[in-house]
Amino acid sequence: MADLSVSMCGMKLKNPLIVGAGPNTKNTTTALNCMKAGFGGIVVRSLHMQHADDVKTSTREMYRVYGNTKDFTKHLYSFQSTGAPVRKMRPDIPLGWGGATTVPTLEQWTEEVAKIVRAAKDYDCTIIASLGWCGSNLTDESLWTTEAAAMEKAGVNAVELHTGPSPATEPGRYMSMDSDHYLAMPIRAARKGTKLPIFAKIPVDCCDAVGMAQVAEKAGASGVVPVTRWSTISVDVENETAPEWRGPGMGGPWSVPIMNGLIFRMRHADKPITYLFSREQGKFPKGGPVTIPIIPSGGVRTGADVIQYLMMGGDAAQICAQVILEGVQVAGRIDKEMREWMDRKGYKTLADFRGKVNLLQPNQAKGIPQWLPIIDKEKCTGCQRCVKACPNVALSLQDKKAKLDERFCEGCRTCYYVCPVNAITLGEAKD
Ligand SMILES: Cc1cc2nc3c(=O)[nH]c(=O)nc-3n(C[C@H](O)[C@H](O)[C@H](O)COP(=O)(O)O)c2cc1C
């Protein structure tokens, strides 16, 4: 039986699946559902903004999904989310729920988190508490320190700083302007309040996320959580109305390869990844590879997504939107998918494949085979989709069948994908 446990920063998680801070972890009731479902850890939702001076009243959740199909376990979707001012205050619902009349004080919130921690003991679940609020909204050092101390008092295993996830507050831009103030300062300030591991969320939007992970490590972060969500503006071209939301964060499973690139580049941060030039590469002048744990947060939908993140050099993975869409049972499905893959490959522990992906060296790249389409004349209907699609004009119609001129083919495979009757297979071009 494969062992999915993860050890990092003095914590041991039974598996690498962590529920990201969000609606699934906003109070004891929802957190308990996640624990029962078997997640290795949860990040309790950041509530800082709700007791910051400028936001005395609650916000409501604004979250919407875009997808071509309703099966979100198998098909790509995108989501957009942000917080918005409540139109209607709800005196009848408990503190912390979107729309509640008043927001919890830090004392009330500490007690709620303590309850979550007590419940976690029965489920072997690691509890990470999220602090603060990103972008320009939080530049008060003492708040980070006070909140970190309060969460340690609540008994959590680690804290995570909300330094990046909400693109609506443009954290990436603020960090790009002054990374010491908007990233290193919160880490240092939280450290004054707690000895627990500190994770910093790193936004991808508008900033050098690789460089920001280096800044976080240098400032004393125990680990980083890169987040793939971008600031977006949707336009309704029919009604030409102004967008309803301000810069909500868009993300989804389509961003997995982008996250892969980020993790890889963090782990190899001193060198560019291109293999196109055989002459010696210049090095990035500042900082070396990120050596602290990396817990990517963005786009996870399947076991294969988590496996990819680990192969790139990640240590665990956070999951938020897929838990909203599919329910907490996503933990069991992903756990099973990972175990099946590991058994098939003969891997016993995550360490057997973690960080395994490497890039081809320039001399190896020359040996990459070039695809060559092979046309089955029997199957070809002469529809000419491949002829029209070929960007190199390597295909033409002869005797009502597609014909290839090998001299012009670059092996892009477009013809293979557009052929409606599978008349094209792929072979290898000879040298
Ligand atoms: C509705 C919603 C609320 C969120 N609230 C928080 C939050 O309070 N604190 C935080 O650090 N991240 C928050 N996030 C960001 C998620 O934790 C996560 O980093 C992001 O959604 C990307 O992961 P995903 O693609 O798995 O959803 C929220 C995300 C969503 C969709």
Describe the fold and architecture.
With 431 residues, the chain is α/β, with parallel strands linked by helices. The chain folds into 2 domains: 6-352, Alpha-Beta Barrel (TIM Barrel), CATH 3.20.20.70; 369-428, Alpha-Beta Plaits, CATH 3.30.70. The chain has helices at residues 28-37, 106-120, 141-154, 171-177, 179-193, 209-218, 256-267, 303-312, 321-326, 330-345, 362-365, 385-389, 414-418, and strands at 6-8, 11-13, 17-19, 41-44, 59-67, 77-85, 126-131, 158-161, 198-203, 223-227, 230-231, 249-251, 317-319, 371-375, 395-398, 401-404, 424-428. Strands 10-9-8-7-4-3-13 form a 7-stranded parallel beta sheet. It has a 4-stranded antiparallel beta sheet with strand order 5-6-12-11, with no helix packed on it. Helix 1 packs parallel to helix 2 (106-120), helix 4 (171-177) crosses helix 5 and helix 8 (303-312) packs across helix 10 (330-345). The two termini are 46 Å apart. The structure holds flavin mononucleotide. The site of flavin mononucleotide has 24 residues, from strand 5 and helix 9.
